[in-house]
Amino acid sequence: MAGTGFVACRSPSHPIARSLIEASGIPIAAPSANKFGHVSPTRADHVMDDLGNEDVWIIDPDLDSDVKVGEKDGIVCDVGVESTVAKVEMESETTGIIAILRHGAVSSQDIHDCLKNANLTSTFEVKEKMQSTGENVSHVAPGQTIRHYSPNVQSFMVSNERCSKEGIVWSQEEIEVLKTAVIIDFSGKLSSLKEYSLAYRDLCVDDDSKTAAANVFGFLRWSETITGAERVFFPEIIVEESNLVKDALVLAVKDRLTRAASGVIVDSLS
């Protein structure tokens, strides 16, 4: 990463990317296919929305050459969120730390299991080192600024305390605000707002983090397309301690929504 003294390596699974690397015979340095700070793309038309005026080629075998990008879904990313980023830090010649800097599909438990299989658990300890910083700071990993993955509509998280109250009553002032608000829900936590909102979608049901991760960036981009939308609300996601090391995707979704809202949690919608 620029200005940090570190380099990150990633091995993609897509056959086209792997073929390109093999044909080049050298490592390839390439930027992400989206504008900095904006919602990450999960489909070809998302890339076109961000970079359509730039000199780019988009490779998507599911799109016919005669079909305008955006008129057909094309390929959707398998996971939906970016990869886990882990940094190896040696504390001595024989011991070190594997620090998780960004949550993705690979959990800390997965990394621990790999270390166990390689008989390296006595050598490396797995720790989480998530950061939230300003945009003017050099970052060791991408996605560490407090404002990131943000739609072009002001976004907020509704506090868990407000989401979880039974028989919650929304004030008339809040209902007026909701007339120009989009709700991106997580497992029905804000379902009581559906009838009042301008538009509503739920990332998943029954806390299904895999489905939520597959939907999160698509739904954030969808919120930008709603005519008249002035705000986007989504619920604060509380992760049970028992899931902290096992369910990497719920942590990834929580992280993306937190940064999309610039870390802002509200108790009132007005």
How would you portray this structure in words?
The model is unreliable at 65-72 and 132-138 (pLDDT under 50). With 270 residues, the protein is of the alpha/beta class. Helices cover 26% and strands 14% of the residues. α6 packs parallel to α7.
Features:
single chain, 8 strands, 26% helix, 7 helices, five-stranded parallel sheet, three-stranded mixed sheet, alpha/beta, 270 residues
Task: Give me the secondary-structure topology.
Elements (H helix, E strand, L loop, with lengths): L14 H10 L19 H8 L33 E6 L5 E7 L5 H10 L6 E5 L25 E5 L1 H5 L7 H7 L2 E5 L13 E4 L6 H16 L6 E5 L12 H13 L4 E2 L4
| Total helical elements | 7
Quaternary assembly: single chain
| Proportion of residues in helical segments | 25-40%
The beta-strand count equals: 8
Strand content: 5-15%
Form type: globular
Question: Short description, anyone?
Answer:
It contains seven helices and eight strands; from the N terminus they run H-H-E-E-H-E-E-H-H-E-E-H-E-H-E. The chain is of the alpha/beta class. It has a five-stranded parallel sheet.
